[in-house]
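Figure 3 (text version): structure tokens given as input.
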């Protein structure tokens, strides 16, 4: 069994979005996999744009696209019936369709029938492989880094992508291992950990980061937080299955409480590192912390640099915002690979 492999490059479908608020997936692909984004396409009258060339599905196929990827998220994760004509147009142009929505593409009988008639694929990224193993805890060769967080939605995916890029820039063999739908679409492969049955989460993580050359790095996208009442279970399974040699703790500057659960305060950085390492050492006794990825979005470059330096001094470890290049990021990378 191999993790999901996606047909690329993509035509990004923006649906009927009027702004980029609901285009998180499209933004991630544009920012992290621009070479896989041939063009954008949207419903008539939609106002949103990612700044990519506008093409019809047939034009995009002629330009090299092999799949149309649903880049817009609707409320509730549905695939609106109003998109049906656009989806069928893509199938008839020779494109497969890739979706990260909760609802399944094949639930639309018109789309399903047309795909079957044309021999096209309808790929739901949030469908995990059917034959996932139970974890064994066996020590694997190679090196692994896992991004973990004090909360959800604070930069674990972007941190993993940035660190994988930084490792490769230094001549190291490194692969980004995707565990969420947008990461999978960026990488073209991966396993959607949040859709895996609980007993198989750690096994899925083992499968995602198999034995490798001694100097090869798998940089694994974290999910949730062991401190989040709703998602700690998936985070713990991913931590044990990944067997990380290095963790990088992700934190949003200024955030004090779990988003959506204000009765739960975020842990102190030292507490978060200590507990995460104690749990990680069940499957890798040598696990260590490389430092902190601090999300400083909203701060000026000068203010961010000041905050990063102060936090590094206070926490006694490298701190950097991976979206800001410079000495702080270099120090974090040094700490991870040493």
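Below: residues designed for each position.
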């Amino acid at each position: 069994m191999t993790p999901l492999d996606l047909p690329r490059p993509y035509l990004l479908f923006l649906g009927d979005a009027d702004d980029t608020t609901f285009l998180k997936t499209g933004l991630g692909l544009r920012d992290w996999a621009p070479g896989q984004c041939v063009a954008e396409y949207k419903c008539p009258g939609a106002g949103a744009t990612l700044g990519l060339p506008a093409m019809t599905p047939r034009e995009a196929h002629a330009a090299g696209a092999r799949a149309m990827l649903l880049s817009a998220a609707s409320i509730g994760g549905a695939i609106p019936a109003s998109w049906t004509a656009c989806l069928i147009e893509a199938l008839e142009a020779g494109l497969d369709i890739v979706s990260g929505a909760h609802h399944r593409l094949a639930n639309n009988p018109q789309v399903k029938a047309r795909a079957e008639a044309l021999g096209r694929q309808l790929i739901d990224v949030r469908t995990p492989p059917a034959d996932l193993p139970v974890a064994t805890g066996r020590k694997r060769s190679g090196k692994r880094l896992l991004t973990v967080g004090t909360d959800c939605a604070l930069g674990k995916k972007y941190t993993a992508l940035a660190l994988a890029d930084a490792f490769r820039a230094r001549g190291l063999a490194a692969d980004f291992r995707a565990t969420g739908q947008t990461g999978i679409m960026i990488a073209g492969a991966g396993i959607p950990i949040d859709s895996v049955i609980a007993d198989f989460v750690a096994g899925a993580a083992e499968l995602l980061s198999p034995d490798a050359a001694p100097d090869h790095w798998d940089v694994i996208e974290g999910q949730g937080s062991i401190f989040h009442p709703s998602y700690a279970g998936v985070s713990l399974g991913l931590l044990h299955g990944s067997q990380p040699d290095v963790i990088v703790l992700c934190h949003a500057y200024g955030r004090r409480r779990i988003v959506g659960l204000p009765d739960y305060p975020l842990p102190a950085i030292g507490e978060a590192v200590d507990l995460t390492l104690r749990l990680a050492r069940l499957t890798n006794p040598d696990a260590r912390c490389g430092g902190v990825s601090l999300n400083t979005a909203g701060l000026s470059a000068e203010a961010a640099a000041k905050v990063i330096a102060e936090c590094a001094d206070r926490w006694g470890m490298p701190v950097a915002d991976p979206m800001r290049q410079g000495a702080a990021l270099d120090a974090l990378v040094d700490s991870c690979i040493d």
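The first helix runs from residue 24 to 32.
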